[in-house]
Design goal:
Layout: H1 13-49, H2 55-71, H3 73-86, H4 89-109, H5 113-116, H6 119-147, H7 155-163, H8 165-183, H9 187-193, H10 195-199, H11 201-213, H12 219-226, H13 234-260, H14 267-273, H15 285-313, H16 315-330, H17 333-337, H18 342-360, H19 363-370, H20 376-392, H21 395-406, H22 410-429, H23 440-444, H24 453-459
Helix pairs in contact: 1-2, 1-4, 1-6, 1-7, 1-8, 1-11, 1-14, 2-6, 2-21, 3-4, 3-6, 3-20, 4-6, 4-11, 6-7, 6-20, 7-15, 7-19, 8-15, 13-18, 13-20, 13-22, 15-16, 15-18, 16-18, 16-22, 19-20, 21-22
Keywords: Cell membrane, Membrane, Transmembrane, Transmembrane helix, Transport
Membrane topology: Multi-pass membrane protein
Transmembrane segments: 20-40, 60-80, 92-113, 125-145, 157-180, 192-211, 245-268, 288-306, 318-337, 343-368, 380-403, 409-430
């Protein structure tokens, strides 16, 4: 007789700690790799790879390469979602981590335009595409490993750990870049200093690979596999049965992503750090990087607290409040950044980070509770990837074009407020399914579509 897989409540505390560690370490490494590129694109890659395009256009082209990877996130989501729903969550976590690491180290080793001509930006774009595919597939697996292992009533808390990878990855990337600005100042940073943060990824990837290989598969997927109920074409079924849900989740994520990429996409850092002759504000680059590092810490703190708060008050109530806090941070952001020094950058980015943390943290568990077990990896991955395309893909590029066109940062502020209210709109429509059973048996019972969170809260 074959023993059934353990339910989340039967999973040992030790195994949950391993899952949390694997999730937070892996996503931090993934996002460190991703942000190192975004920061470098705003600081040095334009000059090293796109200089023949001219002073204004080379910066826009460099920013476009940040957004280009987002266009390939849906491909990563399709692939990882398909195989994650058929083969398991854990294998996809390992594969996406390795793919991101290979691409990141490759960028660190890449010759510049002066060395190999147009082959340099071509290879840079190819490696950036690989990063996009990896990022599109990684998030869904990390979220499901934590949420599907979580005990009832604590999913919001467990769901924030993969979300912490973004602020922690940004904090790590900002810290490493600030260090390299000190170690290799001025021309030395352009010549070789910018490569070191990319090459450091080798050590991080090895550590993340070892940790992720040690965790058990999600109990929900183990049950699906044991009962042989994997779908034949989960992505097709997601769009056939849940297209409106995918759109709402994507819009919700876009509201956070579009605003967040002013920091994670490196736009604020680039604007503040670049010399005035290159369209920047000319602030001390080390101080700017340290200011954003502090903002990343604030983002992480409020992301952490958003999880337990969503368990207590529900996903919808917390997120509605969080969008208003994000809007409050958006309005003065660039007024602070244009204030004349890095200290004002610190004030503006930290204020913005409060709302970003509160809107980002609960998204993981809300996505996971919105899709049934057999399609969950595909559903949350494609929603996340499409949200990234809609919100964050070209947010830094749009911001730069608006600034050059209207010659005022208020144009960027209006754009960011619009994106914020897109997220608020999706939140008001998306159903709150807090504490809905996540197992395949509940999906097969026919009760999934009729569930409301109030029923469950009444029994807790």
């Amino acid at each position: 007789m074959v023993n059934s897989p353990p339910s989340p409540t039967q999973t040992s505390a030790r195994e949950r700690r391993k899952v949390v560690a694997a999730s937070i370490v892996g996503t931090t490494i993934e996002w460190y790799d991703f942000f190192i590129y975004a920061f470098a694109a705003n600081l040095v890659l334009a000059k090293l790879f796109f200089e023949p395009a001219g002073p204004s256009m080379m910066q826009i082209l460099s920013l476009i390469t940040i957004g280009l990877s987002f266009l390939f996130r849906p491909l990563g989501a399709f692939l990882a979602g398909h195989f994650g729903d058929k083969l398991g969550r854990r294998p996809m976590l390992v594969i996406t981590l390795l793919l991101m690491g290979i691409a990141t180290v490759g960028i660190g080793l890449l010759p510049t335009y002066d060395t190999i001509g147009y082959a340099a930006p071509t290879l840079l774009i190819f490696l950036r595409i690989l990063q996009g595919i990896s990022a599109g597939g990684e998030w869904g697996g990390a979220v499901l490993m934590t949420v599907e292992h979580a005990p009832k009533g604590k999913r919001g808390f467990y769901g924030i750990f993969p979300q912490l990878g973004v602020p922690l990855g940004m904090l790590l990337a900002s810290g490493v870049l600030a260090l390299m600005r000190v170690v290799a100042p001025g021309e030395a940073f352009e010549q070789w200093g910018w490569r070191v943060p990319f090459l450091i990824s080798v050590v991080l990837i090895i550590a993340g690979f070892i940790i992720r290989r040690t965790v058990d598969e999600s109990p929900v997927f183990s049950e699906i596999k044991e009962s042989k109920q994997q779908g034949s074409a989960p992505i097709v079924q997601v769009f056939k049965r849940h297209t409106p849900l995918v759109i709402l989740c994507a819009l919700l994520f876009a509201g956070n992503n579009g605003v967040g990429y002013m920091l994670t996409g490196g736009y604020v850092q680039g604007l503040a750090s670049r010399p005035e002759t290159e369209g920047g504000l000319g602030y001390d680059p080390v101080q700017v990087q340290l200011a954003v590092l502090t903002a990343a810490l604030v983002w992480g703190i409020f992301t952490f607290f958003s999880g337990p708060l969503s368990d207590r008050f529900g996903r919808k109530k917390l997120m509605t409040f969080a969008w208003l806090i994000q809007a409050i941070g958006v309005i003065p952001l660039f007024q602070f950044v244009m204030g004349g020094d890095a200290f004002h950058v610190l004030l503006g980015t930290c204020l913005l980070a409060v709302g970003l943390g509160l809107t980002y943290g609960p998204a993981a568990v809300w996505f996971a509770e919105s899709f049934p077990a057999s399609l969950r990896y595909s559903g949350i991955s494609i929603s996340y990837a499409l949200g990234g395309v809609i919100g964050g893909a070209f947010a830094p590029t749009i911001a730069q074009v608006l600034l050059q066109t209207y010659e005022t940062t208020w144009a960027i502020t209006v754009y960011l407020m619009f994106i914020t209210f897109v997220g608020l709109f999706a939140t008001t429509i998306l159903r709150d399914r807090s504490n809905i059973p996540l197992d395949i048996e509940f999906e097969n019972s026919g009760q999934w579509e009729n569930w409301t969170s109030e029923k469950d809260f009444a029994r807790v």
